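User: structure tokens for this one?
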Amino acid sequence: MNSNKGNKGTIFGWLGITPKTTGKGTRPALSPFQEAKTTFTSPDFKTNFPIQGDDNQRRLLAAMHSAHDNYHSTPEQQYGMRNGHINEFRQYEATLTKYNKMTQEEKDDRVYLPQMRIFKDHKRDEFRIPDMVKLKRTQKGSKATITEFKSKEHEVDQRLSVMKIISKPSVRATLSPFPNSASEPEIYQFNAPITKYKTLFSSDKANPMTMSEPHPTRVEQRDHNTFLTDTDIQVINKKSPSR
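Assistant:
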């Protein structure tokens, strides 16, 4: 990790990535909830999912560990929140499975940044932590997708906060170091344009097709698609397939 601190160019530049493009894979189905719960709550979970591999793999695995820690620090009575942490694991696991099946060229064109703080301008105290920021380079340049993982419905206040942040061009990001690293978090200007704000639902009870937007004035319809108002950021709600 770069040891110099401060606002020093784009995340892509810091990672040493130059523009090129590859194809894309198909997102795998989520593992069945009960099967995932058994895996997730096993005493050997962290041993079975060691933080290793390239930077993307390590970040995704570290996010799984974080979900595991949050699950065990949540009181048993809050079963809905606990289930949410299991669903986070299912989503990260599916992302990792997809990534592992990519060619090396496809892997080189993607940067996965789970649980990264984003904020606008210099208001570092007014931040949100989306479940995933994905950076991808294409022939036309780099682009970013902000993704939230939900079980079956939106978290209204959180959604509004994220919309307010990403609808502004001056978005910055706090890129945290890997676990057990002595490095401090670093701040980068988020110059890769955000093109999608996506919510992936895990529960079979979720029905994005009939789901109403919690903040209807924040979105507008264009060419049969939904966008954040006055931006080119497409708003997407999808139910993740499950086995």
